[in-house]
């Protein structure tokens, strides 16, 4: 038997490409401002044939067909690039071998029920089509066709596909943008983060070809916010926002997704379907997505408005902090994810880094006291000084610039730069008189389809509470990058009346001193933590339990166990406290994945 792999376009997308200019078979109809409009997929072919150029094709023998058992994956090298060969349920599949998000090797991920999950950040890809099914990330994997001939495995693929290791799904374009009234749009998206961008892209992927407008207070096109604190600090002091852009400017032009920068919405009139901007401009909409995220909390003490005191919100903020902190004294207020990550990245650059926190252990509420102490020790070993169970009472200046941070404990810290990371509040103040339901904390309440109480108005991202299937549909706020992506997709699908409900499992990560903590589930209210591994060596798995049920899992240097647990939870299965030892043994030490499908013990 011989296996051959070649790049092909999934049947669903090929049919879209092969439509003739007049072949808009039964286009869907959407109403904007009472006017019926048609929308359909872009008529212009995008890579309709991956083998235009024979010189771009490579073919190589990579293994014997019997080298793979069911449930196994293997990276295969074609000389000019690699592919991921998969065998499941007796069938062979082949896709790109790197996660398009941050380039994780998918061969080290988790294969389960027709999809492969990234070992680093939990993105999921269909092994038959390569399509992204869970986030983070925007692109899908290239899919390679598998053929079986004789007893060898051959791969035939496009060199370009092997080198890029990503595929942007087919999208529609706006039919006649020039005919639109500038003050009217079909879909208005307030906010240009992950939720807003994924919503716009999903609409285009589903064939929507009416006007889409995104507006943002930011001066930049949508960018990767996690990289703002996890990546920019590791670059030169001349880093530019374009380096962390989620999509280049040309992408928005190509697919007619309009982005209005430095535009703040001041009010929404849901009866008239009009958004009123701060400068007085008004825009009428048919469907609305509110994805405004959150606003960082500020200090309430004297001197809080002083120069060199930062809430890191933009690329410019990050670059200024790096420049000002080099070889200087830095005080970070708040042992939040932001505060701890900034402390880790500045520890090698600053003369000193001091961290002030109200709790007695970092991350206590999220990771528990034992994990928090282990992380704290790692920071202390890297010259970060902690001042716990105290707050800032005053910021003192000299010649208009920060000089000292005074703590309520009486301690005075030398400080040239102060970074504030004491949490955030939802950016929903402009909705107070709108009639959109908002809870006591300012979060927009939505249902499983990301719909608010107002027809045609959706909300997504950090500013919402939604029913989490994992916790019996309890209304929760999950301010994670991955979840914002999924919110945007679900909102878009339901703008098009698909009736799709959200069912994803929360997945997050944080990186400090070159080590990553991965976390899956929703652990709020946990009453016990079961640790497997060695906290002192920073190689462990922490199981967070509520009564007898495991509600969340965190790990460090134990990949891909968190991704494996994510698949268990996504399948609707429950892990009991008594099962923890078996979970670690079966998933990590033996590599046995049968317990994912309930076939093992």
TrEMBL record:
One Pfam family per UniProt: Pyr_redox_2
Any one GO BP annotation for this protein: execution phase of apoptosis
Ranges where the Rieske domain occurs: 60-155
Cited PROSITE patterns: RIESKE (PS51296)
InterPro entries the record matches: FAD-oxidoreductase/Apoptosis (IPR050446), FAD/NAD-bd_sf (IPR036188), FAD/NAD-binding_dom (IPR023753), FAD/NAD-linked_Rdtase_dimer_sf (IPR016156), Reductase_C (IPR028202), Rieske_2Fe-2S (IPR017941), Rieske_2Fe-2S_sf (IPR036922)
GO cellular component terms given for this protein: mitochondrion
Location(s), subcellular: Mitochondrion
Transit peptide among keywords: no
Record keywords: 2Fe-2S, Apoptosis, Electron transport, FAD, Flavoprotein, Iron, Iron-sulfur, Metal-binding, Mitochondrion, Oxidoreductase, Transport
One Gene Ontology MF term: oxidoreductase activity, acting on NAD(P)H
Principal cellular location given in the protein's record: mitochondrion
Family per similarity comment: Belongs to the FAD-dependent oxidoreductase family.
Function: Induces apoptosis through a caspase dependent pathway. Reduces mitochondrial membrane potential.
Protein name: Apoptosis-inducing factor 3
Species per Swiss-Prot/TrEMBL record: Loxia leucoptera (White-winged crossbill)
């Amino acid at each position: 038997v011989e296996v051959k792999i070649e790049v092909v376009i999934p049947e669903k997308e090929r049919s879209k490409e092969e439509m003739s200019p007049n072949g808009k078979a039964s286009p869907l109809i959407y109403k904007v401002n009472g006017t019926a409009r048609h929308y359909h997929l872009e008529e212009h072919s995008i890579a309709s044939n991956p083998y235009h150029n024979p010189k771009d094709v490579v073919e190589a023998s990579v293994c014997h067909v019997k080298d793979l058992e069911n449930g196994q994956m293997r990276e295969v090298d074609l000389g000019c690039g690699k592919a991921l060969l998969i065998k499941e349920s007796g069938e062979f599949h082949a896709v790109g071998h790197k996660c398009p998000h941050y380039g994780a090797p998918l061969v080290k991920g988790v294969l389960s029920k027709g999809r492969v999950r990234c070992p680093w950040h939990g993105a999921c890809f269909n092994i038959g089509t390569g399509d992204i099914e869970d986030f983070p990330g925007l692109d899908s994997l290239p899919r390679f066709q598998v053929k079986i001939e004789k007893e060898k495995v051959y791969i035939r693929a496009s060199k370009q596909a092997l080198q890029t290791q990503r595929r942007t799904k087919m999208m529609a374009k706006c039919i006649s943008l020039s005919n639109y009234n500038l003050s009217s749009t079909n879909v208005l998206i307030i906010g240009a983060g992950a939720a807003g961008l994924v919503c716009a892209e999903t609409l285009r992927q589903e064939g929507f070809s009416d006007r889409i407008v995104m507006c943002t207070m930011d001066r930049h096109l949508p960018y990767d916010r996690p990289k703002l604190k996890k990546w920019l600090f590791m670059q030169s002091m001349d880093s530019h926002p374009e380096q962390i852009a989620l999509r280049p400017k040309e992408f928005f032009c190509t697919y007619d997704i309009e982005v209005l920068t430095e535009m703040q919405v001041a009010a929404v009139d849901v009866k008239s379907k009009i958004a009123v901007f701060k400068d007085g401009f008004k825009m009428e909409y048919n469907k609305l997505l509110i994805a405004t995220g959150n606003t960082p909390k500020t200090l309430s003490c004297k001197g809080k408005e002083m120069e060199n005191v930062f809430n890191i919100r933009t690329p410019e903020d990050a670059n200024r902090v790096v420049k000002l902190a080099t070889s200087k004294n830095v005080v970070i207020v708040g042992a939040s994810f932001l505060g701890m990550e900034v402390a880790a990245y500045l520890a090698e650059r600053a003369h000193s880094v001091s961290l002030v926190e109200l709790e007695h252990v970092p991350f206590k509420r999220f990771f528990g006291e034992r994990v928090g102490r282990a992380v704290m020790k790692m920071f202390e070993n890297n010259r970060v000084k902690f001042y716990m169970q105290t707050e800032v009472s005053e910021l003192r200046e000299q010649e208009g610039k920060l000089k000292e941070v005074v703590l309520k404990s009486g301690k005075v810290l030398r400080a040239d730069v102060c970074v504030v990371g004491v949490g955030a509040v939802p950016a929903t103040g402009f909705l107070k008189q709108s009639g959109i339901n908002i809870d006591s904390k300012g979060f927009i309440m939505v249902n499983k389809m990301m719909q608010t109480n107002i027809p045609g108005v959706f909300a997504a991202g950090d500013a919402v509470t939604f029913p989490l299937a994992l916790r019996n549909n309890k209304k929760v706020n999950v301010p994670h990058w991955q979840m914002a992506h999924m919110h945007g997709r679900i909102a878009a699908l339901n703008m098009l009346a698909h009736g799709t409900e959200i069912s994803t499992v929360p997945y997050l990560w944080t990186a400090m001193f070159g080590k990553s903590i991965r976390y899956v589930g929703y652990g709020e209210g946990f009453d016990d933590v079961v640790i497997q591994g060695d906290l002192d060596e920073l190689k462990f798995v922490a199981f967070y339990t509520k009564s007898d049920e495991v509600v969340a899992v965190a790990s460090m240097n134990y990949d891909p166990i968190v991704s494996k647990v994510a698949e268990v939870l996504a399948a609707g299965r429950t892990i009991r406290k008594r099962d923890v030892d078996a979970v670690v043994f079966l998933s990590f030490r033996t590599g046995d994945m049968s317990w994912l499908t309930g076939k093992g013990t």
